[in-house]
Amino acid sequence: MIFQIYVQNRIEEYGNEIWNLLKNNNGYLFIAGKAGDMPVEVTACIEKIADENGENGKQFIQMLEAKGRLQYETWN
């Protein structure tokens, strides 16, 4: 049996640590990989973590993008 683990699974697993880095330590997030579902799902996961911590997830993502702290490098 093959069990696949995706990056969004790890983001959920380490959500508190990632939130602390992004929110409290001005961390950066670089999403690199195949275009399609992966970047959308990873971004949704970060939004969910922000929502769970009392922030507006969509606005938090927009702020990260505007400040260059969230960047994407994807390909087909």
UniProtKB/TrEMBL annotation:
Keywords of the record: Flavoprotein
GO cellular component terms attached to this protein's record: cytosol
Membrane-spanning intervals of the chain: none
SUPFAM superfamilies noted in UniProt: Ferredoxin reductase-like, C-terminal NADP-linked domain
UniProt-recorded Gene Ontology molecular function terms: flavin adenine dinucleotide binding; FMN binding; oxidoreductase activity
Keyword Transcription regulation: no
Record InterPro entries: FNR_nucleotide-bd
PANTHER family, per the entry: NADPH-DEPENDENT DIFLAVIN OXIDOREDUCTASE 1, NITRIC OXIDE SYNTHASE-RELATED
Official protein name in the record: NAD_binding_1 domain-containing protein
